[in-house]
Design goal:
InterPro entries: MeTrfase_RsmB-F_NOP2_cat, MeTrfase_RsmB-F_NOP2_dom, NusB-like_sf, NusB_RsmB_TIM44, RCMT, RsmB/NOL1/NOP2-like_CS, SAM-dependent_MTases_sf. This protein has 450 residues and is of the alpha/beta class. The chain folds into 4 domains: 126 residues, N-utilizing Substance Protein B Homolog, Chain A (Orthogonal Bundle), CATH 1.10.940; 39 residues; 51 residues, Sun protein, domain 3 (Alpha-Beta Plaits); 211 residues, Vaccinia Virus protein VP39 (Rossmann fold, 3-Layer(aba) Sandwich), CATH 3.40.50.150. The protein has 20 helices and 12 strands. Strands 5, 6, 7, 8, 9, 10, 11 and 12 form an 8-stranded mixed β-sheet that branches. It has a 4-stranded antiparallel β-sheet with strand order 2-3-1-4, with helices on both faces. Helix 15 links the parallel strand 5 and strand 6. Helix 4 crosses helix 5, helix 14 runs parallel beside helix 15 and helix 18 packs across helix 19. It is globular, with a radius of gyration of 23 Å. The structure holds S-adenosylmethionine. The site of S-adenosylmethionine (SAM) has 19 residues, from helix 15.
Length: 450
């Protein structure tokens, strides 16, 4: 059997059968199968592409099979998804996509080879645009339903994006298209260790458009880079760099040596904040509730002026290491739905549910409340999410500030980002976007305690 396709099938099946994460399970499968170079790249493209386009593929397979895709045996269903992806989204010739999928079905669901052959031949009758035209509701009658099917996102996610974009469906469409692209790897050149231009030269990449620390990697595995192994750089989306650096750019009167990161795991932003703290004689306390993630924070900040605490961030005022009114700058990079980084996690759009929002927003409010207790009068708090969902952004910030009983003012976050950055809106908060900035959709609100 074709090994790259088998590897892709195994990864997709593990995501659906075992709730695995594609970015973790696929590298292990590629190693087991001994796949490198072009074969590994092909298997990766098939896996990620199939998972991203799953919603549209399933609608097409349902029509082609004449029965709900959910009623097809799971191994055969995943093989068909992989075959349909090749037919509709790659340059693989139709006969090769069909015959390799039938071979796969012979191994994973032997009774279904005739069925698989017939369904894929039906899928191959049209291209993806013709299928969408046939199956999606019209843009006029049901724009959210249309965009969801055409660009393979759940309807509730499309609705949330459209709302955060002020109802602009043209921009929403550009965002959905961007979510289906393979995102480039961004590196963060750690200040004091390496300069972004030097790092770009060293790794054959290009300096980032906005963050002074960002380098866009051209290709290759970032884990193999000496700069990453030696702690001069780490992998981090440019948007994450910008919002972490914004906290350190907020003007402050008085002392500026005690910084706090209340949700630090696995340590990307703590790594950047720690490197900036080292240059400014400050010290960062990095809090993470999950033990294994707090160990990752310790690894990510080795050699930097960072103290890692494996405690619940909501214990400010109870834990003697987290006194109230003590810190000058506080970051709350809150747990969230992650709807702003769907490009990087191909299966996550199908896993997340609107029902996740209520427990997450409660936790977000409590953590931001704790941050407002931890910061000293005159100090600043940055609230960050990698989600643009307004319930996790504007609603959480407004509610947490209102309930905190602490006097706070919004600081305009736009001047805390590099000069000349386009598309930052009317302030005082900032929402970054993949289709506008090439970053994850990070949200940033900066509050100053009165
Ligand atoms: C969005 S992630 C933070 C990412 C991190 N700042 C970075 O840049 O690598 C949120 C983190 O908050 C942690 N967390 C969740 N609840 C927490 C709590 N009550 N106290 C402290 N950390 C918490 C999660 O385990 C998770 O690691």
């Amino acid at each position: 059997m074709d090994r790259p396709r088998y590897a892709a099938y195994e990864a997709i099946a593990a995501v659906h059968r075992d709730d695995a994460f594609a970015n973790l399970v696929l590298p292990a499968i590629l190693r087991e199968e001994g796949l490198f170079g072009r074969d590994a790249a092909f298997a990766t493209e098939l896996t990620y592409g199939t998972l991203r386009h799953l919603g549209t593929l399933d609608a097409i397979l349902t029509a082609a099979a004449g029965r709900e895709v959910q009623r097809i045996d799971p191994p055969v269903r995943d093989a068909l998804r992989l075959g349909a992806y090749q037919l509709l989204h790659t340059r693989v010739p139709a006969h090769a996509a069909v015959s390799s999928t039938v071979d796969l079905v012979r191994a994973v669901g032997p009774g279904a080879t005739g069925f698989a052959n017939a369904v894929l031949r039906e899928v191959a009758e049209r291209d993806v645009d013709a299928w969408v035209a046939q199956l999606a509701p019209s843009m006029e009658s049901d724009p959210i339903g249309h965009l969801a099917l055409a660009y393979s996102h759940p309807q509730w996610v499309v609705r949330a994006f459209a709302e955060a974009l002020g109802g602009d469906l043209g921009e929403t469409t550009r965002l959905l298209i961007e979510d289906n692209e393979r995102p480039p790897v961004h590196l963060c050149a750690r200040p004091g260790r390496v300069d972004a231009v030097e790092l770009a030269d060293e790794v054959g990449g290009a300096p980032g458009a906005f963050s002074p620390y960002a380098v866009y990697l051209g290709g290759g595995a970032p884990g193999d880079l000496p700069a990453v192994a030696e702690g001069r750089a780490h992998v981090q989306d440019e948007g994450s760099q910008l919002v972490a650096a914004a906290l350190t750019a907020a003007p402050l009167d008085g002392p500026d040596g005690r910084w706090l990161d209340l949700c630090a795991g696995p340590g990307g932003k703590a790594g950047l904040l720690g490197a900036i703290a080292a240059e400014r004689d400050a010290r960062l306390t990095a809090v993470e509730v999950a033990e294994h993630r707090s160990r990752l924070v310790a690894q990510a900040t080795r050699g930097l002026p960072v103290t890692v605490l494996n405690v619940d961030g909501r214990t400010v005022g109870e834990d003697p290491k987290l006194p109230e009114q003590h810190f000058d700058r506080v970051l709350v990079d809150a747990p969230c739905t992650g709807l702003g980084s769907l490009r990087r996690r191909p299966e996550s759009r199908w896993r997340r549910q609107p029902s996740d929002l209520s427990s997450l927003t409660r936790l977000q409010r409590e953590l931001l409340g704790a941050a407002l207790r931890a910061v000293r009068p005159g100090g600043v708090v940055a609230y960050v999410t990698c989600s643009p969902h307004i319930v996790e952004t504007h609603v959480t910030v407004t509610e947490a500030a209102r309930r905190s009983g602490v006097p706070v003012d919004f600081v305009d976050a736009r001047p805390l980002l590099p000069a000349g950055m386009p598309g930052l809106g009317d302030g005082p908060t900032v929402q970054l976007w993949p289709h506008r900035h090439g970053t994850d959709a990070m949200f940033l609100a900066v509050l100053r305690r009165g």
